[in-house]
Structure to design on (139 residues):
């Protein structure tokens, strides 16, 4: 009976800790960021695959970048797929860089407009501190 009660306490405590973990703002922010990042990645991949790469393919004589390859004996080395993955990465990372830069600029402006309002307790403590400094100088 006592062993069963210990198991229940273990699971209840674990469930309580898990609930506290989930209720943290950072976990929810991170989950939203992962979901938004996934959706953003799909948009950028579509931009690269459906718009940018066909345009580059036209410049290469109608051949898509991912189709570029060389044949050595029986081995086909498809270096075009690697180039396309590198371009995807560079474009996605540049777009993320721009988004972070814009967001931080907006966030900085928002924070700089907020005034720091001191509570009455802090003001009172600062006044007491200043009075004590004056008394020490007089001595």
């Amino acid at each position: 009976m006592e062993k069963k009660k210990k198991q229940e306490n273990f699971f209840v405590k674990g469930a309580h800790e898990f609930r506290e973990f989930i209720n943290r703002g950072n976990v929810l922010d991170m989950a939203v960021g992962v979901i938004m990042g996934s959706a953003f990645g799909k948009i950028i991949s579509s931009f690269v695959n459906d718009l940018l790469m066909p345009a580059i393919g036209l410049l290469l004589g109608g051949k898509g970048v991912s189709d570029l390859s060389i044949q050595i004996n029986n081995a086909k080395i498809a270096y075009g797929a690697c180039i396309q993955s590198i371009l995807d990465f560079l474009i996605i990372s540049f777009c993320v860089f721009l988004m972070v830069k814009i967001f931080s600029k907006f966030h900085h402006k928002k924070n700089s407009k907020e005034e720091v309002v001191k509570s009455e307790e802090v003001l009172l403590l600062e006044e007491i501190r200043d009075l004590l400094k004056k008394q020490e100088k007089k001595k």
